Amino acid sequence: MSINEMELDEENEVKPKNFHELELDDRLLKAIAKLGWIEPTLIQEKAIPLILEGKDILIRARTGSGKTAAFAIPLIQKILVNKRTQKKQQIKGLIVAPSKELCKQIYDVVMFLTIKCYREVRVIDISPQTDLNAQKPLLNEMPDIIVVTPGRLLQHLKAGNVMLKHSLETLIIDEADLLFSFGYENEIKAVLTYLPTAYQAILASATLSEDVKDLKKLILHNPAILKLEEPPLAPPTQLAHYTLAAEETDKAAILYALLKLHLIRGKTIIFVNTVDRCYKLKLFLEQFGIPTCILNSELPATSRCRAVSQFNSGTYDIIIASDEKALEEPHVIKTKKDKRRKDKESGVARGIDFQFVSNVINFDFPLDINSYIHRAGRTARGKNQGTALSFVAIRERPMMEKVEEQLKCTYNCESLFKTYLFKLEEVEGFRYRAKDGWKAVTRIAVREARLKEIRQEVINCEKLKSYFEDNPRDLQSLRQDKALHTVKLQPHLKDVPEYIVPPTLKGIMGIGKRKRKFDRDAASSGATAVKSRHQARASNPLISLQISTKK
Ligand code: AMP
């Protein structure tokens, strides 16, 4: 048995192929073009032909490498090709992932990729924990592809709601190492007994733990192994790192000015170091008509998932996240006996992908190097460009220097951080407004905002639905709180009066003639995001202008 092990290394690549060279169906190529993907990522370039050849493969790569499409594209292609000769509608592809959130993410990718052939290739995600019987009719329709968690799949298999023995052609197991840390070992083994004796198997995993090696032996036959040894971050040509010296009192004013003057374009994640700061910043920006959503480790998994999907779908252009370390696998599940394992289908942050992020802003500088890498790594994914801009107060400088030292070694370069030139005195008007706005967000306002969020979660909670049906007055009392504004909004603050715009920017922005539109855009940036995300990706997502570049 020969094992074909390939180390993928971008530097050794001569010239990347384009998608057309992979001989894909036109409908797939059109969908890929619609997504704005110009060329395959390294893992896609290697994996797609091998999967199309029918080989079993093990993909060792993390989220961000484009691995979802690496297995989804050939799966769809194979189904389209088979449909030319086989007319019988059957379940051909099974994608198993460890959490509902990941299933939803995979399902979304498959949906995007089948946008031009949705009648021919149908996909369903049956990971949501609704009534098993409610999902049965969906399975009876014999979708071509099912995306599901192992636990849920086993329930359906045992209930006889789905039969795979005579139809399944491709099994894909994603984030295999997480499946084991989530204690899914038995379910996976049980699921295998319901599958045909021969099928093509693809295993994707970030690491090759002993468990994954066992699974590899169990399901892969003579596999090709694709190892993507990734650098921790995209190269500086793809991911630009900026710093901006700003003391605590000025950070809010600078952020407000950068956003309102559209010096930051495209989708943005703003990182802070604590949960309270998340709410403080949200309430601060809210006063200026800048809508944001929030992500922090204290939110239940479903809310975090919703925040990410609202950001990804373009409902919000800006997400404020508290320290990334807290977001990493917040419901850590270590052993099978671990008492903390409550809902193993949920709560995995790893693998969850923020899409089309043009900028990461460290409003608070991260507390260690790993945190910097995690945060900055949320942009410049796949082949996209990105910017990481860090606000650095004097007390944060030592950590910034440490990060730079380490990353310089990694990148083997002379310097990493470019200085973002910004003259605060030119945005005095913003500073003045920001000072009041920041002060208005008192500790009580922050506390109330957090309480409001919890109430909202209670209302949203699926499990409480029936309780509220029986007790509508309780729901009413919770709803009344919804109107609570924890900081008084002053409508005039949403506009940017001409006199506060720095003279250096007035000409460039055509202020006067285009000012009204400029303000309107800022106020409705959420609504325009869906359209703008592709534009933002297509155009240079870097911070577009710098104030006072003229000396
Ligand atoms: P994944 O590793 O599958 O989670 O994908 C990471 C990100 O890369 C996702 O946001 C994809 O939309 C994006 N992506 C995947 N393939 C490509 C590609 N060929 N070109 C540009 N972006 C891509």
UniProtKB/TrEMBL annotation:
Gene Ontology molecular function: ATP binding; hydrolase activity; RNA binding; RNA helicase activity
Positions of the Helicase C-terminal domain: 257-425
Residues of the Helicase ATP-binding domain: 48-226
Alphabetical keyword list: ATP-binding, Helicase, Hydrolase, Nucleotide-binding, Nucleus, Ribosome biogenesis, RNA-binding, rRNA processing
Single GO BP term: rRNA processing
Catalytic reaction list: ATP + H2O = ADP + phosphate + H(+)
Entry similarity comment: Belongs to the DEAD box helicase family. DDX56/DBP9 subfamily.
Name by which UniProt lists this protein: RNA helicase
Organism: Lasius platythorax
